[in-house]
Amino acid sequence: MARPPIRNPSAGGFLIAAGVMGGAMIGFLFGQATIGLLIGAVVSIGISLAIWARERGR
């Protein structure tokens, strides 16, 4: 029997968590923690969506 190809999908959840935390920390340094958190979330979600789209195309 033929074995199906092994797929190792990439996960973007860690990127989202790290982006939110990192954005909040950087924003805190500039006195704008909420804005940093939001920017970190948007950027990391965008990167995670790019990873998802790349994996979906395989």
Write the layout of secondary structure elements.
Elements (H helix, E strand, L loop, with lengths): L12 H17 L3 H24 L2
Helix pairs in contact: 1-2
Radius of gyration: 16 Å
Distance, first to last CA: 23 Å
Indicate the percent of residues in helices: over 70%
Total strands: 0
Q: How would a crystallographer describe the biggest sheet?
A: none
Written as H for each helix and E for each strand, in order along the chain, the element string is HH
Q: Which secondary-structure class do the elements indicate?
A: mainly alpha
Describe the fold and architecture:
- With 58 residues, this protein is mainly α.
- Helix content is 71%, strand content 0%.
- It has two helices and no strands.
- Helix 1 runs antiparallel to helix 2.
- The mean pLDDT is 88.
